[in-house]
Amino acid sequence: MALPTTARVVRLTRKPQGLPVATDFTVAEEPLAAPGPGDAVVRNRAFLVFPGLRTLLGDEGANLPLPRLAPGDALFGPALGEVLAAPEDGPLHPGDLVVHLHGWRDAVVADTGQFTVVDQEFPEPLALISAASAGYGALTRTAEVRPGDVVLVTAAAGAVGSLAGRIARLLGAGRVIGTTRSPDKAERLVAELGYDAALVPGAARPFTEQLAEAAPDGVDVVLDLVGGEQLTAAVDAARPGARFALVGAVAGQLDPRRGGGSAPAVVDTFRIVTLGLSLRGFTLLDHPDLEAEWRERLAGWLRAGEITFPWTPVAGIDRAPEALSRLFTGDGFGTTVVEL
Length: 340
Description:
Layout: E1 6-12, E2 25-31, E3 39-49, H1 52-57, E4 79-85, E5 97-100, E6 107-111, E7 116-117, H2 132-142, E8 150-153, H3 161-170, E9 175-179, H4 183-192, E10 197-199, H5 207-214, E11 219-224, H6 228-236, E12 238-246, H7 250-253, H8 269-275, E13 278-281, H9 290-303, E14 311-315, H10 320-327, E15 335-339
Helix pairs in contact: 2-3
């Protein structure tokens, strides 16, 4: 089989003014480097569209775990691909499915160490490129769900939150509450994803009132992906000793007036002190041991039908820039994936 000599790649054309739009990017066909002695050639099957790109495209924030993107740069991110060629004495073989960070292109040549093989028996390989492992890590490492806990998950219809409700339940939570800005998605959270209640910030009814009704005795665990008013309300609804895992800051990333790297929120520090609340940020980079554990548990839950992987498909790399733009308008449900 002839190996590809070109690749279609999504590049940033200009710095976004506010939220990114499709015309900020271009899809170009470019020469693909010839593989070196330790390289593999991989054809991508799918890649992840994720809100963290808003921060990398912006001009705010310090100590970011990934490099910023400037005009001319190729986008990147989690992807699922098939090995076309690899060194005979290496860890990869033609036909292997692999996950890696060379998304936003249809083919890649890179050192074999940059690819992780997907077990042939893994029930749904596409789930491995989602960001859901962050939810699992936050609920097991930072907030540590205990039997009977009341758990609040913000942005519950997104890539992390759409699995976090089931994960919290499987870890022993007694009641799981989610938030989403779409009434239709709120219905799906309860009907399809195991949430006991779904709240809609921005609706006619005040969010604090909705939360008080859903959790009249307060919340024990908060998996926060939003910040802003939802974090404010969650602190006000916290029980003594409640644990907050802060995983995202969508309120800032969705604000066109900001640069994607800040998300100020007002919280009652007196309440944090007197109730002994803990608020801690979570990043996957701080937990290198997590990935193998997550894969094992996810595989078992998928096989047993105890968890599902909701995702929104996008057909073809040409639609990828528009898919990123639509991610910020809330059009998807679960993980947004570009299929190639």
